[in-house]
Amino acid sequence: MSKDSNSLRMEKIVSLCKRRGFVFQSSEIYGGLNGFWDYGPLGVELKRNLKNFWWRRVVREHDDIVGLDGSIIMNRAVWKASGHEETFSDPMVDCRSCQTRHRADQLPEKDGASYCPNCNSRDLTPPRAFNLMFKSFAGPVENDENLVYLRPETAQAIFVQFKNVLDTSRQKIPFGIAQIGKAFRNEINPRNFIFRSREFEQMEVEYFCKEQDGLTILEKWLEERLRFYEDIGIPRSKIHVHEIPDGERAFYSKKTYDLEYEFPFGVQELEGIAYRTDYDLTQHARASGKPLDYFEEETKQRFIPHVIEPSAGVDRTTLALLCEAFDEETVTDHSGKSEVRTLLRFHPRMAPIKCGIFPLLKNKPELVSKAKEIASSLRGQLAVFYDETGAIGRRYRRQDEVGTPFGVTIDFDTIGENGPSLQDTVTLRHRDSMKQERIAIAELKSFLLQAVD
Ligand code: ATP
């Protein structure tokens, strides 16, 4: 696809997100705030489906992984020990002509020289380190002693609670601690919609193991994470596995993979899977003076566990789901008229609404009451949307556009007006193929639950 068609595609996705209530600009009525976004009614369901499925895959389906929900603000000492206070920075340059600020490593270049992406000037300051952590104060006095940071990653809470979790969960090495939560980075140039924002969510696991198993476990996680993306509807062929070469990895990492997705704006990181050795626990044990080692009963050995960290972004994966699902196709109706059908081909388990419920006519009380009855019988376990307004074809299209995989129409056959043979059955329409079939109301719930599981 050309650059133009890719940026047009991205524009259409962003516009659909706003139009249909997936993502809004934060504080929009006040002009917004760069790098911050709000998830609307459908976006919140999509994100929740993603997080729930990650939790199920990572925590519930593993008896060696437990969860944690750490606080966003922690003792500043955590960030000193982890190295974030000193080194969690991006190189930044200022443009002397237009006074804008940019990431030095993302500047466009021409004839070997960088220039300002805003005004094309080459009059740039030398790069300076810009710390990405947001600062605040805990308590009423704004002094250095009360300085705190909003966490730039969820991982550190896991490391500093390693001992508490180990002592209370009866886990043995190897085992993991998982967490989903907000992280904040004062990115110099937030961009590409929800891809790079200043407030976002991460889904991370710290998997603790013996040193000799580290590299093997890293490969297992790579495989497991690729399978996860496949199971939410992002095919392997769209994920690029990039092994970070020596010299570009964090100094403590023995091996790191980035999983990258083919976004319309380029192939970009979705998740990092890093073998972080024993760096983090060693740093915190040293700085806190508290032992963070592990005693192995069988061998009577004490050691600091090594760590594998699969760290994924909720918002980036949500964006990948939207980009992967977005489609436009030309369809021709029975009268020969063609139109463009916009649809989101979400995997049913990710779709924000699982099933649309439509009485064929809204002025026929029997149809309406039957449809409402079906909707309420499904509602507790499935996100359904009841819609009685407009022609049935238009109602289908509205659901196609938000990725609802199934539509159920309650018609005269359902209420037995055409004889008993089709009574208590409904039309089930499939979003992708637009095929329709008849299904008994009694079987509907189990069919849907199985399809979205
Ligand atoms: P990048 O190089 O794109 O800035 P990173 O390598 O710094 O990302 P990590 O520190 O490895 O990112 O964070 C793990 C995951 O958290 C990333 O793979 C990404 O999915 C997510 N993430 C990181 N920064 C952001 C951000 N500013 N906005 C949205 N998601 C982010």
Largest sheet: 7 strands, mixed
Strand content: 25-35%
Helix/sheet category: alpha+beta
Distance between the termini: 34 Å
Total helical segments: 12
Strand order of the largest sheet: 3-11-12-18-15-14-13
Which stretches are poorly predicted, pLDDT < 50 over at least 5 residues?
none
Mean pLDDT: 96
Instruction: Please tell me what the overall shape is.
Output: globular
Which compounds are bound in this model?
A: adenosine-5'-triphosphate
What radius of gyration results from the CA coordinates?
A: 26 Å
Number of strands: 25
- Residues in helices, as a percent range: 25-40%
Map the helices and strands:
Elements: H1 3-19, E1 23-25, E2 37-39, H2 41-60, E3 65-67, H3 76-82, H4 84-87, E4 89-94, E5 101-103, E6 109-110, E7 113-114, E8 128-131, E9 135-137, E10 147-149, H5 155-160, H6 162-169, E11 175-184, E12 199-209, H7 214-231, E13 239-243, E14 255-263, E15 266-277, H8 279-288, E16 294-296, E17 301-303, E18 306-313, H9 314-325, E19 326-332, E20 338-344, E21 355-359, H10 365-379, E22 384-386, H11 392-401, E23 406-410, E24 425-430, E25 436-440, H12 441-452
Parallel strand pairs: 3-11, 21-22, 21-23
Antiparallel strand pairs: 1-2, 4-5, 4-8, 6-7, 9-10, 11-12, 12-18, 13-14, 14-15, 15-18, 16-17, 19-20, 23-24, 24-25
Helix pairs in contact: 2-9, 3-8
Bound molecules: adenosine-5'-triphosphate.
Adenosine-5'-triphosphate (ATP) binds next to strand 12, strand 15, strand 18 and helix 9.
